[in-house]
Methionine aminopeptidase (Triparma laevis f. longispina), 299 residues
Amino acid sequence: MNKFSAETFGSHFPISPHEISTKLNVPAGIAKPPYALTGEVPPAPHAVTLQKPEVVNRMREACGLAREVLDLACASVEVGITTDEIDKIVHSALTSCGAYPSPLNYAGFPKSVCSSVNEVICHGIPDSRPLLDGDIVSFDVSCYLDGVHGDNCGTVAVGNVDEAGHTLIKATKEGMMAGIAAAQPGSCLTAVGAAIHEVADKYNFSSVRKYCGHGVADVFHAPPYVKHFRNSDECMLLPGMIFTIEPMFVEGNQASTTWSDNWTAVTVDGGRAAQFEHAIVITEEGNEILTLNPNNPIP
Ligand code: MF3
Ligand code: CO
């Protein structure tokens, strides 16, 4: 039995760094975002953009593809598959549709998807570690298609996961959906954080404060920055705003640390994390979830 909170937070051993394979190639014909060659992310705009219908149309395509490939990544999960193998599946699915995998070389990120196992909160790098029976794993799939980024994330169970793990996954998705329901034209961004926080409280999980949702379209990460906890940020939501809602819930304490790879964010106490993410657009009537898969009508 490992001494790292194994009894409290499922039966897994702590996640440790494994081998990272060589960088994958993106075919020359695929349009790349500005950071793709250098790894340098240009400064984000300071104000929130109200996107035109034409941009919303392109976002529907990019987000729809991101969602289809997220569903493919989740469906590829089985005991023994490595996250590196899933990265290759995501990379080839996106590039074969003419899309650039947004994470690849974003601020130097070395892979095409983020894969975050058990106590990894987010930004896990796919590697040679096989998924084990009892793990939970999230995939954050994002892609650049026709000049805009689609972005979404989901968490699945590997084999037989304990009840607490299943509850964590269910609660996190419920938190995301409560945040989406609170995102209405004329309401305030604070309502989103409050709605998510309430769900975390109900299940006795912590909603992570360190990582936020974000505006997304031609720029990958832009204002508004969306806190998944009670806050007093004043931002009135208006039609044409496009942003993600992507809460991470954790068991235990949310204190976190980042590995020396400068990406992998893990809980200090070994509590597991789950994450769900949709990209939405505020409309005149309410909002529209952009990251939907027509073949899988469940949000
Ligand atoms: N897709 C993530 C998000 O939800 C960001 C990943 S950036 C990466 O915002 F470089 F880490 F991949
Ligand atoms: Co995001």
User: Anything to note?
Assistant: The chain has one domain: 53-289. The helical segments are 53-75, 83-96, 163-182, 189-203. The pocket of MF3 (ligand 1) is lined by residues 103, 106-107, 109, 114, 123, 140, 142, 151, 153, 244, 246, 277 (CB under 6 Å). Residues 1-7 have pLDDT under 50 and may be disordered.
